[in-house]
Design a protein that fits this description.
8-stranded mixed β-sheet, 315 residues, alpha+beta, 4-stranded antiparallel β-sheet
Length: 315
């Protein structure tokens, strides 16, 4: 599962705040490259191994006219244009099936970002990446958190617990990020981060939407962050290696009420093979009742949501 570019941008803004970077005046505020392994967690034991891998490069300006175009030069390759996703932010990303493919496409060396066509003029700076510094472990939800996520009373505080990790020797910054994506609002209802060691975050009561499916993601992020060498001495330079783990969850209507458990699809009080048969019978004909993640459509995401609850033995 790939984490959205929106979540990566939230992480960037959090880093800027943590480092005391003030986004004021015409400037490049931050320029980054990230390598990430994405995994899912389907029970209380531990996360799966990463099932996909991604590369992300981004450049973030203060003003809408600071840069008109941005390119990234990967070692040994010609410059590639980055995509302008709004007046301030540029990005480039790629997905891969294996870590080896990711590292082969984006090898060690000096990465160069260049800007042109804006009020800042033509500028370029280098992101050196001559080593790797992956976190020591894949993040996992711990201490019964996965089960707790399956039936959440949104009127109560929710404590989310997870494993810690040892900082990588080559990294100078070790952070853990956490986000709760609420499908009812189509955005992150909760997002936070802290330096290691940290092993839990609390989502305050009444933050999450009642009767809504959610996805919860933890990022363990080992980084080299340098402030502020580039683009006129204003930009925070970040090169990071991240592991991300996502688990699904569901809120009730709160206060002791709630919707039926998605795993007990036929609502007969048990979680068994009949629920699988009944779910697929409805899913194959596109019946709205098979929209178990409540996103307005009947598709493969509903299969993932259903089995995440069913394989756990219920909610």
């Amino acid at each position: 599962m790939h984490v959205s570019s929106k979540s990566l941008r939230l992480a960037v803004m959090a880093s800027l705040a943590a480092c005391g970077v003030n986004r004021a005046g015409a400037q490049v505020a931050n320029y980054i490259i990230f390598y990430t392994g994405y995994a899912n967690q389907l029970n209380d034991l531990s996360a799966e191994a990463p099932g996909s891998w991604g590369f992300f490069a981004g450049l973030y300006t203060q003003g809408p006219d600071d840069a008109g175009e941005t390119t990234l030069t990967v070692p040994g390759q010609p410059p590639v244009p980055m995509i302008k996703i709004d007046p301030y932010d540029f990005y480039l990303n790629g997905g891969f099936a294996t870590q080896a493919e990711l590292m082969g496409a984006y090898p060690a060396g000096d990465y160069v970002m260049s800007i042109s066509g804006g009020t800042l003029g033509d500028l370029a700076d280098t992101l050196p990446r001559n080593d790797t510094w992956w976190p020591s472990v894949q993040p996992s939800f711990t201490d019964g958190t996965y089960t707790a996520l399956q039936v959440i009373d949104p009127t109560q505080d929710l404590v989310v617990r997870f494993n810690t990790y040892d900082p990588a020797p080559a990294a100078d910054t070790s952070l853990t990020f956490f986000g709760a994506f609420d499908y009812a609002i189509g955005n992150y209802a909760f997002y936070t981060f802290a330096s290691q060691p940290v092993s839990e975050f609390t989502i305050p009561a009444n933050t999450l939407t009642p009767n809504s499916p959610l996805s919860f993601t933890i990022w363990h992020s080992s980084r080299q962050e340098v402030c502020c060498p580039g683009f006129g001495g204003t930009a925070l330079r970040t090169v990071g290696f991240d592991y991300a783990t996502t688990a699904t969850g569901f809120t009730t209507e709160g206060g002791g009420g709630g919707t039926p458990c998605p795993a007990d699809f036929n609502q007969d009080g048990g979680v068994d093979g009949a629920d699988v048969s009944d779910f697929f019978a409805a899913w194959e004909i596109g019946d709205a009742i098979a929209d178990v993640n409540q996103d307005g459509g009947v598709d493969g995401a509903d299969v993932t949501t259903f089995f995440a609850a069913w394989e756990n033995g219920g909610c």
